[in-house]
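lol ok so funny story. i was supposed to be doing the assay writeup but got distracted and ended up predicting the structure for this chain instead. priorities right. anyway since i did it might as well share w the group, maybe its usefull for someone
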Amino acid sequence: MRHRSKFGQLLAMLAVVTAVAVACGGSAEPTASPTPTAPTASAPLTGKISVFAASSLTEVFKTIAADFQKANPGVTVEFNFAASSALATQIDQAAPADIFASADTANMTKVTDKSQIDGTPVTFARNLPVIVVPANNKAGIVGPRDLSKAGVKLVLAAPDVPIGNYARQIIDRLAATPEYGAAYKDATLKNLVSNEQNVRAVLAKIELGEADAGIVYKTDALVSKEKVKTVVIPDAANVIATYPIGVLKTTKNKNAAVAFMEFVTGPQGQAALKAAGFDTAS
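and the output, tada:
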């Protein structure tokens, strides 16, 4: 009888333990852990992230990174600045990167089409192409029409580089108007003396007086300050450059990468972009 009594007590104790577990939220099915999207207050960010960014973002992204690192002293942000087309190629060739910030949607699409971006890229800035000439403007260029004048030395980025593609779209749009005509395109491209690897290479040629005109972003002209003068492109012919950003699936530091992207698209990052002459995403 004692054995039966002890056995009964054991069963009762097991029943109580099971009831307590269920009351505390126990479940027969394990709950999947959510994918981390942002750091928590109890888990400070640490480590390095590598940001592949368009050349036109050089100064402003360095500013944003400094602010981000000040807020997150455990993180180091490293950059690879180049033409978006070159960066997309490097990513495709498995270059180690955590974030891609492109100066156009076309090169971001090349990366997303190969399922290399985690989630959906976010537009964080916009920009506007302008014509730049050396400070002395010896060629006397005052408008887009002057790019077609005989003897003018024009420098553009290569066609696959975003600003090079935008520049050619602008020339096509102008040539499609009665005011300019189809001959404008042929005459302008006949003056092309150099296809550069990125927008900053175009700017450097103009700063050094090695060409009479080039097409860059308005933000690049601001960086150059008094070294160049700006010639406005009519709004009807101009192209708005859209900048998307995304975290790569191959990132080894997702929490920090996501946090940096959110910093760029957040109030502090947007304020820095606006101060640098970019049009913000909103």
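The longest helix spans residues 2-23. The chain has two domains: 47-126+242-280, 129-231.
back to the writeup now i swear
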